[in-house]
Write a structure and sequence with these properties.
By secondary structure, the chain is α+β, with helices and mostly antiparallel strands. The chain has four helices and five strands, in the order E-H-H-E-E-E-H-E-H.
Length: 154
């Protein structure tokens, strides 16, 4: 297995794997179209602070991490917005290996932490805790939905 930096040439493969993973249990997400998901990745990659990694086996993407460099008082951090592993590779140590490889990569890029949000009670929470992440009980996530011209929540 090899880690590589994501670029625009990987958008379609990232989107297809994303759809494959997140439309199944426990997430069961639905999307308006494949184009909606491709636009999501395009928007990430257009961000000057974008940092993304892929993991491949036999020249096929089996995992991806989509995120960004986040400035903080103590230096730059890697904020993971989306982290996902091909369904048939889950539960086999692939995600844990991928995180270790990412840690090595961000260390060389002078980032000093990985931060992320995940849903309470979903399998991802235990996965991250098992891999050395800890919940910060002093923080909460707040959101405010803004309605677009189309009448849909963003």
């Amino acid at each position: 297995m090899n880690i590589f930096k994501l670029s625009k040439e990987h958008i379609e493969e990232c989107a297809d794997l994303f759809i494959e993973v997140f439309t199944k249990a426990p997430w069961n997400d639905t999307y308006d179209s494949r184009t909606q998901v491709i636009d999501f990745f395009q928007n990430h990659m257009d961000n000057d602070y974008f940092v993304g990694y892929g993991l491949e086996s036999q020249n096929r993407m089996i995992a991806a991490s989509i995120g960004m460099k986040k400035p903080w008082i103590n230096g730059m951090e890697y904020y993971i917005d989306q982290f996902y592993v091909k369904t048939d590779w889950q539960g086999k140590g692939t995600g844990s290996l991928f995180l270790k490889l990412i840690e090595s990569e961000i260390r060389t890029e002078k980032m000093n932490a990985i931060i992320l949000n995940t849903e309470k009670g979903f399998p991802a929470e235990n996965f991250y805790l098992k891999n050395g992440f800890r919940s910060n009980e002093e923080l909460i996530i707040l959101s405010s939905f803004i309605y677009c011209d189309q009448g849909k929540k963003k």
